[in-house]
Design a protein that fits this description.
InterPro entries: AAA_GajA/Old/RecF-like, P-loop_NTPase. It is a single chain. With about 70 residues, the chain is α+β, with helices and mostly antiparallel strands. It has one domain. The protein has one helix at about 60-70; strands at about 5-10, 15-20, 25-35, 35-40. Strands 1-2-3-4 form a four-stranded antiparallel β-sheet, with helices on one face. A hairpin with a 2-residue loop joins strand 3 (about 25-35) and strand 4 (about 35-40). The longest helix is centred in the last third of the chain and has 11 residues, at about 60-70. The chain is globular.
Length: about 70
Amino acid sequence: MGGGFAFTQYAGGTTQHKTRTGVYMLKSFHISNFRLFQNIEVEKLGRVNLVVGKNNAGKSAFIEAVVALC
């Protein structure tokens, strides 16, 4: 592991890394039966992630799912 990550934790369908500053950062997660998402696995998240799509594609629902995980 690089970038100063202290450990990896898997709980509730998420993979989190704790940085040297004590901040948790999502690396992957699973959404099941949330709004329009029936079953989606999101992997390889970085420090900065861009969510793009057409109108009514589910961008806001995706962000709400991420917020619900935190």
